[in-house]
Write a structure and sequence with these properties.
By secondary structure, this protein is mainly alpha-helical. Helices cover about 70% and strands about 0% of the residues. The chain has 12 helices and no strands. The longest helix is centred in the first third of the chain and has 18 residues. The protein starts with a helix and ends in a 13-residue tail after the last helix.
Length: about 220
């Protein structure tokens, strides 16, 4: 039989956790996000862990960020990569961006520019602005993709139209690097996203390969 001290300790734990069980996944995720942005990482984990266990991918992403930087938990690159891969496989664009950035620099994962570019393309097509910005940089510098100033311009012109200052500055800096036909083509692509993504996809027709399970 449990002694009195153990029973009281158990009840104390239940009383502490019971408010969490009453919250929906959305509420858990929101509380965790608020705590995260207030840099109260211990509190954030209290909400983000149960939210992520119930399938909230943004909460899972925040846990990956905390593992990567050692926020509220010891830094653990291996765990961060595992988390970002899990989110990326479920088509979570923030996780895809995080995984791609780490892969570009070879942080906690083997450096692979080509695979990173494929991941950024998926996230960019999903509407992630950071991925679209980075993909423009990849095309401008020929990192993991064939250098293409027109595509870089098109991506930055599109993101600049959404009000992003960094994209505007980089787009404007390219203005005199492009011929008139290239400039017109870039402007056309930035206003026709289905056409832009179709051209981008042609370079890596096997873009899902990275996420396929290896055959045993």
């Amino acid at each position: 039989m449990l002694n009195r001290k153990m029973v009281l300790a158990f009840l104390s734990i239940l009383i502490t956790l019971s408010p969490l069980y009453a919250l929906s996944v959305e509420q858990l995720a929101k509380e965790g996000e608020i705590a995260f942005y207030h840099e109260n990482y211990i509190e954030a984990r209290k909400y983000l862990i149960p939210a992520s266990e119930q399938g909230n991918l943004q909460s899972l992403y925040y846990l990956g960020v905390m593992s990567l930087h050692g926020f509220g938990t010891p830094a653990n690159y291996k765990e961060a990569i595992r988390i970002f891969k899990s989110g990326a496989q479920k088509n979570h664009s923030d996780s895809q961006v995080a995984l791609g950035v780490l892969m570009i620099d070879g942080i906690g994962i083997p450096q692979n520019h080509k695979e990173a570019s494929r991941i950024f393309k998926k996230a960019a097509k999903n509407g992630n602005r950071d991925a679209q910005l980075i993909l423009g940089w990849l095309y401008k510098n020929g990192v993991g993709v064939k250098s293409d100033n027109t595509l870089a311009y098109a991506l930055w012109n599109y993101v600049a139209a959404q009000g992003n200052e960094w994209a505007r500055v980089n787009r404007d800096a390219m203005y005199y690097e492009l011929t008139e036909p290239e400039l017109y083509r870039g402007q056309d692509l930035s206003s026709n996203l289905p056409k832009l993504w179709k051209i981008v996809a042609l370079e890596n027709s096997d873009s899902n390969r990275y996420f396929r399970k290896k055959r045993s």
